[in-house]
Each structure stands twice: as structure tokens, then as C-alpha cells.
Amino acid sequence: MSAPATPTRQHLAAYEVLPAMKREAEFYLDLGPLQILILAMMGGAFVTFGALFSLLLSTGVTASGPQLLLQGLGFSTGFFMIILSRAALFTEANVILPASFLQMSWGEISSKAFQFWGIAWIGNMLGALIVGQVIAFAQVYPDYVHEALASVVSKKMAYMEDGSATAWTRIVASGMLGNALIGMAAFFAAMGNTLFGKFVPIFLVVSLFVAGNLQHSPANMGYFSLSMATGGGPGWSDAFLWNVIPAGIGNILGGSLLVALPFWFAFRHRLK
């Protein structure tokens, strides 16, 4: 009688994720600028659809906890679309690329990484802008959806009311925390070997990120694009100065220092 087959592992061990991220980085770094731009625009589009879904699911729910949970479910859908399609997201790259820096020589990466970072940010912005404009043109939503959007945007722009250097620094710090969580969502997604195994941690971690109102540059591009396309929002100059730019700086620091570096240091002996 033959021995029973060994069950297929449902997920990778944590120390196996960094080599997987290195392979993912190599895939992105081998792309040409136009390919990166297209994938980044898709990433911006998906994150904007996730922002829209978070509003549509949560409007009409008055209890704060269930409302935030539904917003997390809606937004995690956009992130899940990005993970499955291999669309490029600026903040995901802030984890994948630093993780690769620690495993590859500088000559292997050179300027390609910085080219990817820059094009991904621009592409995410373009994708969010285009989808926001098309949604505003094509769809008519009830007033309560627009009110929910205004409430979300207002929370993201709350730092501007202070207007101090300390407030700007707090956005950077919130961006660090935000991409620590989004980076961990990408980390856990890389661990999963099934669609279910990828989605559950993404949903849980992204829901925590949404509930905490942590700052995330591409996510906020999505919400701002939806708001600005309908004549609302703070205006792009204020949005960039008091959210998108400082949040993006924090996202780079958070993905690098709070995700990639600690796991590389802890597991570096297994990477040799």
C-alpha cells in the first residue's frame, strides 16, 4: 500500500518570501518604461475602483465599526486586483525593491529601480485621474455617496488645518505606518499559494489600514481623483502638498524600514 500523498502547502514560510520578492522585482526591472507606465496606470485605475467600492459598500451604514469594515473590504478589492494582475503600485514597489536591494548587488539594480519608482508614481496618478474622470462622466450616484466621499477626503486632509511643519511631519509618519501595513499585505499575499490564502490576509490588513485612517499615496490619489472629478475636494495643489507628497515619502520609508529591512535582518542567514 502506497504512502498517502503529502498535502500541498497552503503558504510559504516567512523566510521564503524575500526570495519571492526578489524574483518579482526582477520581473518589474526587466520591463521597459512604456510597459511600466501601462502597468502603473492599471494600478492607479484599480486602486480608484477600490476607493469607489469602499464608498458604495459603506454608505447607509451608521455604526462606525461595520462601516469601516465594509470600507476595508471595498478597498482591499482594488489591492487584490493589483496583486493578481501584477499591475504596478508605487507603494508595493517600496517593499519589493528595497527587499531586493538587500539581496542583489548595486550593479544588478542601478538606475532601473529609480526609473521604476518614478514611472510607477506617475502612472498611478494618471490611472487614478483617468478613471476618476470617466466615472464622474459615466455614473450618477446619490448624494449620500458624495457625502461619504467628502467625509473620507476631509479626514485625509485634516492635517492641513494645522498647517505647521509638525503636521506635515505627522503625515510622513502616518505614511510610514500606512505602507508598513500595505507592505505586510503584499508580504502575506506572497506567502499564499491559493487565491483564498492571498485574499484573507489582504482583506484583514487593508481593513486595519483603512480603519486607522493611515496615509497611503496611491490610495489617496484614488479618493482625490473621485472627489475632484465631481467638483469637490481640496484642489490638487493642497492635496499634493498636504497629503500625496508627504504620504509618499512616508510610504517609501515605511516599506523599506518597517518591512523589508527587519525581515531581511531576521532571515538573512537563510538567504545565503
Key structural traits:
globular; Glycerol uptake facilitator protein; transmembrane helix; For/NO2_transpt; 272 residues; membrane; single chain; mainly alpha; 11 helices; Formate transporter; formate transmembrane transporter activity
In which range does the helix fraction lie?
over 70%
Low-confidence stretches: none
- How many DSSP-defined strands? 0
CATH topology: Glycerol uptake facilitator protein
Brief overview:
With 272 residues, this protein is mainly alpha-helical. The protein has helices spanning 17-29, 33-58, 64-85, 90-101, 106-138, 143-156, 159-162, 165-191, 195-211, 217-229, 236-267. The chain crosses the membrane at residues 36-58, 78-102, 114-141, 167-188, 195-214, 240-267.
Question: How would you portray this structure in words?
Answer:
- The chain has 272 residues and is an all-alpha fold.
- It has a single domain (14-270), classed as Glycerol uptake facilitator protein (Up-down Bundle), CATH 1.20.1080.
- Helices cover 78% and strands 0% of the residues.
- It contains eleven helices and no strands.
- The chain has helices at 17-29, 33-58, 64-85, 90-101, 106-138, 143-156, 159-162, 165-191, 195-211, 217-229, 236-267.
- Helix 5 (106-138) runs parallel beside helix 10.
- The mean pLDDT is 90.
